[in-house]
Here is the input.
Amino acid sequence: MTTPYTIWALIDDRPGNATQVLGVAEHLATADAQVEYKHISYSKLSALPNALLGASAIGVTKATRKALKAPWPAVVIGAGRRMVPVMRAIKKRSPSTKLVYLMHPQVGLQHLDLIAIPQHDEPPQHPRVMSTLGTPHRITRQMADEAAAQWSGVLSHLREPRIAVLLGGSSNNTEYTMEDWQRLGAALVGLRSRLHASLLITTSRRTGAEATQLLQQMLQGSGYFHAWDDGGENPYLALLALADGVVVTGESMAMCSEACAMGKPVWIATPATGMSNKYTKLHQALYQAGYAKPFGQQSALDWKPPAPLIEAKRVADRILEIIAQ
Here is the structure.
């Protein structure tokens, strides 16, 4: 190792994994750690069970293996099932390197030095495990404020209070019907009327064309509406910065966590049929900690969360403690 503060952030092709790793790594970079970003490409062998792969890099491409070489870092950060054998292979060649894994590893905890597991995944009680509320993400107040400055000409004239509306949609675990979208649209119209607010709305790929068209019609004249398929830059970060409160659909753990990053009231909207147990646990954890409330007819801006929820920084701080030991 050339320096005790060299850190490798392992980035793969899964955005959900990459966002968590980047979020933690970027906080470490601001703390003067030397962060190197290693892009990991998998081979077909990565589909094998981790129990068979063990501590080996045979599940990644030859080019990736060539890039993972000395001088070795003090810490390696990774996420995703396929990343575990790669991390263990690095540890095999550099026993002093600490392995930090984000998410539940599905392997023996003795193979990793720090494991950050969300509360909704029921982390075990173990000295190497830290529990997070929601998932680590990249959003910071500075990042959001910079986006708000770029969008001020489009958004800053809108009447206050402003409510950001972050719309996802159906996924592998959740289905939003047109009746759900109709009900959500009506609730947003009611919220706007009660609060005399502007709505700052953005959809996503999951929302779909039919639901987007319905909501555009129902919410016409409510403030600002960005449809995902319109192209151009998404004002997502600017909406978070400029809003006085946030409504977010509950099928995305990342989006729910990001909505809580600004320290503003957050309401989580769910479909009538409910959500899977894991998502329900996340929502309940956010409610119990005071970061969010269920979206309903009585939603009001008369409360404030305890603090911005930025778990990536808390994980980064724990890594710096490990380096200093």
In short: The mean pLDDT is 93. The radius of gyration is 21 Å. The chain has eleven helices and twelve strands.
